[in-house]
Specification:
mainly beta, Ku70, Chain: A, Domain 2, two-stranded antiparallel ribbon, 11% helix, 29% strand
Length: 205
């Protein structure tokens, strides 16, 4: 696993990250499909001719130009709607992360968290005591995060749990638009024909 380089008020610490997923929390079940003779079945893709079977690993994505020429991914360039080049972001693991910006609880709750990592200092190292004290008091630190680099960065939050474990949570801000009562559409009066119709019996579907 990559090493996350953190720094708090001049005190650096290198951390290993351990992803927490549902399988670690709840376990998992694996389904195996067997044929009539008890042999394990493997996934395959049925070609468009309806008779050719393509085994796993035999299908891939390709980049083709408007004229039909093959293009390598490294030749592609990201642009916006106006054709301007988009400057990407580098991997967070390639630079030192300065824990300076704090987040409010409200801002944290506005984000849709999709990944959770446990942070652990490398051997014979520890988190800066000042950072530990701030996290213990309920402070939340935030910074842009990109695992491999790309066009945009997610938002990372560093918090301390009830068991004193320090976590890094990754997510994106949720775009929610609230509608006031004044914006709600009025309900039209039913027509006479609608009033005479019988209620639908959903058991018939």
């Amino acid at each position: 696993m990559p090493v996350l380089q953190l720094e708090y008020k001049g005190d650096p610490v290198n951390c290993g990250i351990s992803k927490v997923d549902r399988s670690k929390l709840y376990g998992y079940a694996k389904t195996e499909i067997l044929d009539d003779e008890g042999r394990l079945c493997k996934m395959a893709t049925l070609a468009s001719d309806g008779r050719t079977l393509i085994p796993a690993g035999g299908v891939a994505l390709a980049y083709i130009s408007p004229t039909g020429a093959w293009r390598d991914k490294k030749e592609l360039e990201a642009v916006d709607m106006n054709g301007n080049t988009i400057t990407g972001v580098t991997s967070t693991f390639k630079e030192v992360v300065h824990l300076e910006e704090e987040s409010t609880v409200e801002n944290f709750l506005d984000h849709n968290i999709r990944m959770v990592y446990e942070l652990s200092p490398e051997e014979e190292a520890s988190f800066p005591q000042g950072l530990v004290s701030e996290l213990k008091s309920g402070r939340i630190f935030t910074f842009p995060f990109s695992y491999r680099g790309g066009l945009t960065a997610d938002t990372a939050f560093v918090i301390e749990g009830a068991d004193e474990t320090i976590w890094m949570l990754i997510g994106k801000k949720t775009d929610i638009n609230f509608i006031s009562y004044e914006q709600a559409k009025g309900v039209a009066e039913p027509d006479e024909e609608e009033e005479d119709e019988e209620d639908l019996d959903f058991n018939m579907f």
